[in-house]
Amino acid sequence: MRSDVFFCQLSLQYANKMGCDVTAVSTSPGKEEEAKKFGAHHFLNSSDEEAMKAAKNRFDFILCTVSGTANFGGYLSILKPRGTLCLVGLPPTGEPLPLTALHFVVGERSVVGGYIGSRATTREMLEFSAANGIVPQIQVIPLSRINEGLDIVRNGQARYRIVLDCSQ
């Protein structure tokens, strides 16, 4: 069986429903219980050096949704030979990935990127979501508190996506 790593709550749900052996990775050990509720079978604390060493060459595929600075070299080290690191989150604009040729040559690992799919792919994804009960976690804020919502996002305090309720 493939062993794959996923980061965000939606990717955990999709991977689980697709039958993957799912490992969630986070620098925050406090997210383990929540990750397992979203469908992770295992949890890896990427800030724990011993845990990362123990996970070396373990995974076939990593879907990295981190939209900031991350330990990309560390993620490559936990891939099996010929494994793939797929980036769908982006580091800060203009920031290069801190990787060298050695990261790729040793173990024949690959880094690929993905972006939004076509309308047909989006439709397929929504149909799969509906059929499998996959739903995003959101934080609803009434439109009257829009400034508070913006402050939550600006300060990096949003737990999930912020959704403005315009019905009130």
| Number of distinct helices | 7
Q: How far is the N terminus from the C terminus?
A: 49 Å
SSE pattern, N- to C-terminal: EHEHEHEHEHEHEHE
How much of the sequence lies in strands comes to 25-35%
Largest sheet: 6 strands, parallel
Number of strands: 8
- Provide the residue-averaged pLDDT: 88
Spans of at least 5 consecutive residues with low confidence: none
Give me the Rg, rounded.
17 Å
| Percent helix range | 25-40%
Q: Give the oligomeric state of the chains in this entry, treating copies of one chain as homo and distinct chains as hetero.
A: single chain
Which class best fits the helix and strand makeup?
alpha/beta
Biggest sheet strand line-up: 3-2-1-4-5-6
Cα shape: globular
Features:
6-stranded parallel sheet; globular; alpha/beta; two-stranded parallel ribbon
Q: What does this protein structure show overall?
A:
The chain is α/β, with parallel strands linked by helices and 168 residues long. Helix content is 33%, strand content 26%. It has seven helices and eight strands, in the order βαβαβαβαβαβαβαβ. It has helices at 9-17, 32-37, 49-54, 72-77, 101-105, 119-132, 146-154; strands at residues 3-6, 21-26, 42-45, 59-64, 79-87, 110-113, 138-142, 161-165. The strands form two sheets. A six-stranded parallel sheet has the order 3-2-1-4-5-6. The radius of gyration is 17 Å and the shape is globular. The N and C termini lie far apart (49 Å).
